[in-house]
Design brief:
This protein folds into 2 domains: 165 residues, GAF domain (Beta-Lactamase), CATH 3.30.450.40; 65 residues, Arc Repressor Mutant, subunit A, CATH 1.10.10. 57% of the residues lie in helices and 15% in strands. The chain contains 10 helices and 5 strands. The chain has a 5-stranded antiparallel sheet, sandwiched between helices. Strand 4 and strand 5 form a beta hairpin. It is globular.
Length: 243
C-alpha cells in the first residue's frame, strides 16, 4: 500500500468516529499510531485537558512514551506544555540544543533513547484541548508538508471530539472528556492485570484488549472493566487476536 493510499485510509478511520457514540480512547490511540507510521517517528503520546483544564495522559504507542508524558506533567516542563499554552506547533526540536529551556525533559527523553521531538496542538478555532507528541530516535526533521499532514490528523481528531452533533453544550463536553479519563484509568489498570495473568508485556496487553474490543464492537472501557473484575479471561482476550 502506498503512503497516499494509507493516508486516505487513516482519514477514513478518523472520520469514522464522527458518530453519536464513538470511542474517545480508540480515536486518540488511532491518531497516535497513524502519526508514528506516517511521520516516521518511533513513538507518540497524547495529552488531553479535562473540564477543569487539567492535563492528563490519554494515549501512547509505547509504555516509554507514556512514562515520558507523565514525567512532563509531573515536572511541568516540556515542549508539549508550551504547545498547549500557546496553540503553536513546536517541531524539529533537537534535544541537544534545549538544555537551558527544558533541562529535566531533555535529560529524561534522551535517557529513554530519543534525540528529537515534535508537538502538535489539538485545536479548533483557537480552542486548544490537547497536544500530540512525537518522539524520534534520530535527529528527525519534519518538512512543511509533513507538519501540515500531522496537523491535519490532529485537526480531524479534534473535530471528532468537539463534533456539534454530540457536543452542543459545555456540560456535554465535560461529561465526554470525564468519561474518557475514567476509561483511561480503567485501561491502565487492566493492562497491568492482563499483563500479569497472561505473562505478557503491558504494550501487548493493550494491543490484545483493543483487538478484542474492535472485534466485538465494545468500548475499550467496558473491556478493561471486564478484565479487571475477571468476567473476561486472559485466554478469551488473547483468543480474539489468534483468530
Amino acid at each position: 500500500m502506498s503512503r497516499e493510499q494509507r493516508l486516505a485510509q487513516v482519514f477514513v478511520e478518523l472520520a469514522d468516529t464522527l458518530v453519536d457514540d464513538f470511542d474517545v480512547i480508540d480515536l486518540l490511540h488511532t491518531l497516535c499510531e497513524a502519526s508514528v507510521e506516517l511521520l516516521q517517528a518511533e513513538a507518540a503520546g497524547l495529552i488531553l485537558a479535562d473540564p477543569r483544564s487539567v492535563l492528563h495522559v490519554m494515549a501512547s504507542t509505547t509504555e516509554e512514551a507514556n512514562l515520558l508524558e507523565l514525567f512532563v506533567l509531573q515536572n511541568d516542563e516540556g515542549p508539549c506544555l508550551d504547545c498547549y499554552s500557546t496553540g503553536i506547533q513546536m517541531v524539529n526540536i533537537d534535544l541537544q540544543e534545549v538544555e537551558e529551556r527544558w533541562p529535566r525533559f531533555r535529560a529524561a527523553t534522551i535517557a529513554a533513547g530519543y534525540r528529537s521531538t515534535h508537538a502538535l496542538p489539538l485545536r479548533l478555532r483557537g480552542q486548544v484541548i490537547g497536544v500530540l507528541n512525537l518522539f524520534c530516535t534520530d535527529r528527525a526533521t519534519l518538512s512543511d508538508s509533513d507538519v501540515d499532514l500531522g496537523q491535519a490528523l490532529c485537526d480531524i481528531a479534534t473535530v471528532g471530539l468537539l463534533q456539534e452533533r454530540t457536543v452542543r453544550r459545555s456540560e456535554l463536553l465535560a461529561e465526554q472528556l470525564q468519561s474518557a479519563l475514567n476509561s483511561r484509568i480503567l485501561l491502565e489498570q487492566a493492562k497491568g492485570v492482563l499483563s500479569e495473568r497472561a505473562g505478557i508485556g503491558v504494550d501487548e496487553a493493550f494491543v490484545l484488549m483493543r483487538a478484542y474490543a474492535r472485534r466485538n464492537r465494545l468500548q475499550l472501557g467496558a473491556v478493561a472493566g471486564a478484565v479487571i473484575d475477571g468476567t473476561l479471561t486472559a485466554s478469551e482476550v488473547a483468543g480474539a487476536d489468534r483468530r
